[in-house]
Amino acid sequence: MSAQDEPAFRRAVIVAVDVMEYGRRDDGQQMDAQRDLLTVLQWASDQAGVARERWDRHPSGDGELAVLPPDVPEQRVVGQFVHELSRALTRLNEEHPAGPRLRLRLAIHHGVAASASNGVAGQGPVVVSRLVGSEELRAALTSSGANLAVVVSGPVFNDVIAQGHTTLRPTDFREVRVREKEYTGQAWIWVPGIDPAVLDPAAGQSDEAQDAAPTAAGRSKDGRRRPATARRAATPTIHNEFHGTVTAENATFGIRY
Q1: The Cα angle at residue 124 between residues 209 and 191, in degrees rounded to 5
Q2: 66 exposed, middle or buried (CB, 10 Å; 0-12, 13-18, 19+)?
Q3: Cβ-proximal residues to 157 (8 Å cutoff; 6+ apart), any chain
């Protein structure tokens, strides 16, 4: 491969956004959600000055993945943009109280990406896609009842937030361990106006995972090992104490099914 044919991989700020419970909307509501998603993203971008019109955007109907140009300051995306997006969602939902609220999950990562034949390639887009789709972020949005939940990767948290380059404080975030498909890594979740201590990452487990019945000791139907607390809760125990002589012919000690 000649130098001219090599993909133009570069490090960039990469964001991904997804509409919560998009599939539960009817056809007309889905069209409304797509329109409103673009509206709040553009409004937040304009207010924060992050030049959305120059983003390398890849829409997916209920979401979007975008690679930002190198001259857009990362701290402005992580700081002003997320604040303005939260405000835009509040304003939009107050103006349309009759329909379902627009609630978003947003992921931000700084990594390697390049334009490809069917979108973008590189580990950067993979990481941000796994973060925005993670059960931990879904749980944060669901349990908080908020309009927006934001997750940032390790590089973004350590290099931008922990170093004080934005108005977001490290203590505003909840650290989580994300395991999504082939990706495993540390991430940090922020929900506007919510104490991070009350966020429940475990609440993001799917209904199927929560309802899975045990088929072998400590395992659910899909073969995954269940948490120790779940195994204890699913297995009743009986404690009997006898003092003196007990006559118990034909008696049952324990639970009869």
Answers
A1: 55
A2: buried
A3: 170, 173, 187, 188
Alpha-carbon torsion angle 73, 77, 80, 83, nearest 10: -170
The 10 Å Cβ neighbour count of residue 84 is 20
Please list, in sequence order, all residues whose beta carbon lies within 8 angstroms of the beta carbon of residue 241, skipping any fewer than 6 positions away: none
Mind giving me the DSSP string for 169-214?
Answer: -GGG-EEEEEEETTEEEEEEEE-TTS-GGG--GGGGS-HHHHHPPP
Judged by DSSP in three states, 58 sits in: strand
Distance separating the N- and C-terminal Cα atoms of the chain: 69
Strand positions, DSSP E, 117-182: 119-121, 148-153, 174-180
Single-letter code of the amino acid located at 198: V
pLDDT band at 216 (very low <50, low <70, confident <90, very high): very low
**Residue located via tokens 């409103």:** 36
Task: Determine contact, residues 122/162, Cβ cutoff 8 Å.
Answer: no
Bridge partner residues of 216 (DSSP):
219
Task: Of 217, 7, 10, 249, give the one whose Cα is nearest residue 124.
Answer: 10
Residues in the chain: 257
Residue with the bigger pLDDT between 99 and 109: it is 109
Residue 134: C-alpha distances to residues 78, 107, 116, 184, 223 (Å) = 19, 10, 24, 10, 21
User: Which residues in 230-244 are b (16+ Cβ under 10 Å) and which e?
Assistant: beeeeeeeeeeeeee
Contact criterion met (CB below 8 Å) for 231 and 218? yes
| Residue range 21-79, pLDDT digits in tens | 999 999 999 999 999 999 999 999 999 999 999 999 999 999 999 999 999 999 999 99
